[in-house]
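Today's session is about reading a structure prediction critically. Students often jump straight to the picture, but the first step is always the sequence itself: look for stretches that repeat, for charged clusters, for runs of hydrophobic residues. Only then move on to the predicted structure, which in these notes is written as discrete structure tokens rather than atom positions. Here is the chain we will use throughout the hour.
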Amino acid sequence: MNATATIIFVALFLLITWLGFVAARWRQADLNLLHEWGLGGRRFGTMVTWFLLGGDLYTAYTFIAVPALVYGKGAMGFFAVPYTVLIYPALYVVFPRLWAVAHARGHVTAADFVRDRFDSRMLALAIAATGVIATMPYIALQLVGMEVVIGALGFPTEGFIGHMPLVIAFLILAAFTYKSGLRAPALIAIVKDFLIFITVIAAVVVIPARLGGYAAIFAKVPQEKLLLAAPTGESFGAYSAYTTLALGSALALFLYPHSMTGILSSAHGHVIRRNAALLPAYSFILGLIALLGYMAIAAGVGEDPAHAAGFARYGPNYAVPALFLASFQPWFVGVAFASIAIGALVPAAIMSIACANLFTRNLYKEFLRPDCTEAQEAQMAKIVSLVVKIGAVVFILALPQAYAIQLQLLGGIWIIQLLPSILLGLYTRSCNAPALLTGWAVGLATGTYMAATQDFASSVYPLQAFGVTIPSYAALYSVLLNLFLAIVLTPAFNLLGRQGLAAADR
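Below is the predicted structure for this chain, in token form.
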């Protein structure tokens, strides 16, 4: 065990634990109201929202997985950079409008908005259920990121004793989230992001200096990992996969319940617009993080016997921890690993709160207890947030990590199916609920089928058309079908509805 790194790691973890509990008194309010507990009272300003959304979107698994993808697959891993840029113009244009409607109508979730807009309990239930199911493996993947750095510190990660650090971390998370609600991850996100910035800046300065500069790094990376495979006469190759992964991921990003929670917690629509201008700074940081994959290749960490056990257990996900262990003093390794672990707690807290909001508002209150008081509503949300965290821990400990990764790939395909209901609902009332519900179901089934044909190992589907193979993100194909059906079926269902009313009148 790396004693120095572990001491620093634990000290920083204790600091954010304290902050999590103190957050209940930050901008003090009645946390027995769901909008106060689950949305921070809708009072977060520009900077707090910036840190909250940054902590929400750029997670521990991002810090581990993006460089791991670059380390293993090369240039394809950089699709994460343009997709986080593509989304911000949409954030600027679309989401202030959603915020304004939600604020005026008292909506806590996107499903609340859909329920109100289309007057359909079943469509709202479909939106809420999709959000919860797509988010659960996302929470579990935060545990994967945390487990990798805990293992890199020298802790055992097998058996009951090996799982204890993860269990303790999530018990602490559960406790301060239950007490403080969204205020806890909002406050902790500020500390987390400063630690991330320090770690990344140090990494992109110190590690290249040790390796002989960026020219030397790129010279050691195999040519096939520096560039995407060029299209041929029979296939678009990696170009179409890269493009559609970026576009589809951008369309899906802010449909996740945790992203929506961050947006709806803002104090004003102008806060969202300012964040659309400021958040690309995180995309710049993400680009630097992706470069760590190339640095790991140049440093030869995968060939070092000292890291053989880590790579054997975690595969390419161990590339960044191995690189830090090989490049920094133990005390700074503790800081870097703490930033990654805290980067798991912040989004996990927001995700569990978002799932709790959805369950409470769109299942419990809508179907089970429509007469519940505001205090009972908030109490149920707190309980559900605990259940969600426990479920994520059980999921990752009881099942292989590959299942969590596969389900997260499906999560992106599933969550993008909310796009027609939310986007069309913001700008028109012409679509009807049955058409949207049909499009949602067909899109969900089609996207899942495409992933199944790839054995759930990839979300890129090789579509055969006119003698050419077009590998593309299954989420994009399926949501286009979803949108097409929603638009085409609306007049058909409207006609059937009018005929049914006419028959009833006769």
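Discussion point for the tutorial: The radius of gyration is 23 Å.
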